[in-house]
Design brief:
The complex is a heterodimer of chains A (309) and B (366).
Chain A: H1 5-10, H2 29-43, H3 46-72, H4 75-84, H5 98-127, H6 130-135, H7 141-159, H8 161-174, H9 179-184, H10 187-213, H11 216-241, H12 251-260, H13 277-303
Chain B: E1 4-13, E2 16-26, E3 30-35, H1 41-49, E4 56-61, E5 64-65, H2 70-76, E6 77-80, H3 92-103, H4 107-120, H5 136-148, E7 154-158, H6 166-183, E8 186-190, H7 194-200, E9 203-208, E10 211-217, H8 218-224, E11 228-234, H9 238-246, E12 250-252, H10 270-278, E13 287-288, E14 294-300, H11 308-317, E15 320-327, H12 331-339, H13 341-348, E16 355-356, H14 362-365
Parallel strand pairs in B: 3-8, 3-9, 6-7, 7-8, 10-16
Antiparallel strand pairs in B: 1-2, 1-4, 4-5, 9-10, 11-14, 11-15, 12-14, 13-14
Helix pairs in contact in B: 3-4, 3-5, 4-5, 9-11
The chains are: A mainly alpha (309), B alpha/beta (366).
Amino acid sequence: MSLSPSEQSSGIDLARYHGWHGTLRNRWAGCLAMVRVSLLQVIRRKLYWLVLALGFSMFLIYWSLIYALAQLNLPEFSEQILSRFQFNVSPTPGVESGYVQFMNQQSVVVMLLLALSGSQLVGADFRLRSLTFYLSRRIDRGQYIVGKLLAVSTLISALTVLPALLLFFEYGAFTTGREYWLANWQVIPAVLGYGAVMCFTLSLMLTTISAYLQKMAPIAITWSCLFVLLKTIAVKMARETGNSHWLLLDLWSNILFTGRMFFGVFPERNDGLVVGMNHAIAACSVLVIVCTICTFLLVRRVRAVDVVE
Amino acid sequence: MAFLELHNLAKSYGRVQALRDVSLRLEPGAIGLVGNNGAGKSTLLKVLLGLLRPDAGDGSILDLSILHETARVRGLVGYMPEITATVPLLKGAEFVTLSGDLYGMPHREARRRAHEVLNYVGLGELRYRRLDEYSSGNLQRLKLAAALVHDPQLLLLDEPTNGLDPSGRTAMLRTVEDLIAETGKSVILCTHLLGDVERICEQIVVLREGTVILSGKMDNLKQATSRCYDLMWDGDGTEFVRALKRAGTEISTLSTRSNSPNSLHATQDPETDTKSENSSPSIQGSRNLRGRNANTIRVTVERDWATHSFFQMAKESGIILRRLKPVEENLHDLFLRVTAHDSLDQFRGLPSPALELGESNSHDSA
């Protein structure tokens, strides 16, 4: 008995090869796939869960606090209570925005996470030669670099920009009327700008360091030296010599000061050293130089990889 | 229809000339790309993949320029690298999906297609396993699936059976054979294992020092070189070998069929080497099989060669032929003969010819 055409078409044959007749998308779409896979890789390592939990705990504390104050319905006290937790939702001149403070606090966790995950996100591509796999597909070296920078940036944003914006929207949603939104709308571009500085510089530096060092221990050590040791040296030298230019060696603070420019604040350092507008611009210049060097080294490193061996 | 055409392609790395004046015209089908280490295979593959711009020359693959349409070329080509280039912590299906994404497939399509090709290569049951749990054989299959995911018209397989046990190798070759037979896809097989090439490929390209020294259809190749004889004799064969050479035969003693057919390196008998040092240049490399006076050589003759001429020459040279055995020259023997031309030529005083099968044959060049 022969099969009818509908019966034949409804059958499956997994043992046979079936063609595909779709249309290929733009090559840049491959960068998004790299981001997705990189995040998947981070989530699959339990070591990173701990750091991510640490990162999200601060956000959850503030989130719960805002929610609790909104439920208590004490609008006149909520700002005061939040400011006691160093979270000034409506900053006044001389008082730093709570969102800046929040992002600064989060940057500690970000630094820790990046130091540990650099080997997984980027180093493994060189160590285990996954780069050959990426580059033998349709994407080119530039798209690979952009994909990796986006992947690291997404991780940074998930711990800084996204929670800060969520807190802003949460607080705004619990206020009555449009006054809060109208008075503080600049927070959104400021958070995005600060986040962009953090994402761009940190992702570029991490990708470059990981491309060369590849393993977790050397990456973590180098990362610590760049952001902790240099900070210590910079402060010591500035104190000893009385020359604040030494502070420009402190890359972490350079990122923070550059980022704060988007909020329009140039506060004093907590170590008592004076920093003004000129220092912020100088810090920005240092970051530009560092990023240029990193770009040059990264391109050079990626170009050195042979796809066909 | 030529699906791959290269015209006077050249590429150098500093002072090292990796490709010299490479011109090829290949028809769709299975093509074997072979050559010794440093012959220029990798450079040629890079050029074909659009990863490397040649210094001179141009070409097209699937009617796309390898100079100006590299991204489109890679969209039509599936590349399976030799090394285990996988992404850690991913599962099989995710890895193949990622491959599809990177080729530019819509994500949903890539995911569906990943399951399909994994089933096809026989990894349907293992698709949710992490890549670090895959055996070497399964990793090779996985890489094949990753190369197939976007349904390319051409597959570039770089040592696909590398590191596989015999059963794994057979299974991989069978999959590739089925793929060619079922879908009509073209395959460029770059390998050191000439047995694989002989089994799968219809056309072959042999590279030596960046130059194409042999290219054409395998059938023509076998037809052109099918008249070979193994000769063994007792006594001093110097005069006999000279007579053979005067008659225009090609003498090759670098290997026998009993040696590993998959190795590119001939196995030299130490005793032979010792003997050859003391003998005349024309019989260097002859193999001592039965005592000091029994020697054997492989002779390639023209198709109209009369077999009794061997006996005539032996009689005139004062030796007794103990064996005259026609043999079919396999790809391994031919490869050794062609790539070892320089070393043999020093004994023969013959120029090193480039062989173009189908247009001329090895006898003409000799």
